[in-house]
Design goal:
Blueprint: H1 2-5, H2 7-23, E1 83-88, E2 102-108, E3 113-118, E4 124-130, E5 133-138, E6 144-149, E7 154-157, E8 162-167, E9 173-179, E10 187-188, H3 189-194, H4 202-209, H5 213-222
Bound molecules: 2-acetamido-2-deoxy-beta-D-glucopyranose (NAG) (2 copies).
Organism: Olea europaea subsp. europaea
Disulfide bonds: 40-55
Family: Belongs to the germin family.
Length: 225
């Protein structure tokens, strides 16, 4: 390597790396930024828009701000996918504001699927409570990894990767998931591509999927698009 062989070469190399670091600083973290105070209960109704939500005045904070019972109820799975995601993100549970953490509850009917999706702002981990769940993820290099989980077993989905869960058991399935973001976001691939508003031009979808317009129309019609 140049660093070992040639002193003036290594000096140039070092200078180039230094300039690169100054111009394009490496991100110091890969999840939400750290909070700057003990807590900041989100004022989700505020007219101000910041990176997160403004804090509710500390004098108005009560015990209730630190607790949330929205995950105690089973979601209704009588829908297209046979699954229901109940979110406990900063919007539902403002106490999470700025803390870089959130959770979901996902209920599945037998055969139900949480369709391929990704979370642009978070790594996800989860534990299966009931049922038999196929969890799969696909890397940026198009390698597919999967496993069928039993209750008590966990999974992890690296930040941003496309993944899904499918109930492959005879009974209902239930999982609780956690994210290292107060608002992980979800790009649900089928809805994103076939049910956006306004819709993605047919010409883009026919070319991207190498099918004719009838196939695209049929898929769009399933999502009421
Ligand atoms: C999920 O369940 C809740 C509570 O039963 C229900 O209000 C909501 O419409 C369901 N969502 C979907 C997509 O079925
Ligand atoms: C679940 O949703 C379906 C479809 O919207 C509805 O017909 C049914 O009454 C709901 N079940 C419960 C328990 O709310």
């Amino acid at each position: 390597m140049a660093i070992v062989k040639n002193q003036s070469g290594s000096y140039v190399q070092f200078t180039v790396i230094l300039i690169g670091l100054l111009l394009f600083p490496l991100p110091s973290r890969s999840s939400d930024p750290d909070p700057l105070q003990d807590f900041c209960i989100g004022d989700t109704k505020s007219e101000f828009s910041v990176n997160g939500f403004p804090c509710k005045p500390a004098t108005k904070v009560t015990s209730d701000d630190f607790f949330f019972d929205g995950l105690s109820q089973e979601g209704n799975t009588s829908n297209l996918f046979g699954s229901n995601v109940t979110q406990a993100n900063v919007v539902a549970f403002p106490g999470l504001n700025t803390l870089g953490i959130s959770m979901n509850r996902v209920d599945f009917a037998p055969g139900g699927i949480n369709p391929p999706h990704s979370h642009p702002r978070a790594t996800e981990t989860g534990v299966l409570i009931n049922g038999k769940l196929l969890v799969g993820l696909i890397t940026t290099g198009n390698v597919f990894y999967s496993k069928i989980l039993s209750p008590g077993q966990m999974f992890v989905i690296p930040k941003g990767l496309v993944h899904f869960q499918m109930n492959v058991g005879e009974e209902k399935a239930l999982t609780f998931t956690a994210f290292n973001s107060h608002l992980p976001g979800a790009v649900v691939v089928p809805r994103n591509l076939f049910a956006s508003k306004p819709s993605v031009p047919d010409g883009v979808l026919t070319k991207a999927f190498q099918v004719d317009k009838r196939v695209i129309d049929e898929i769009k019609s399933k999502f009421g698009a």
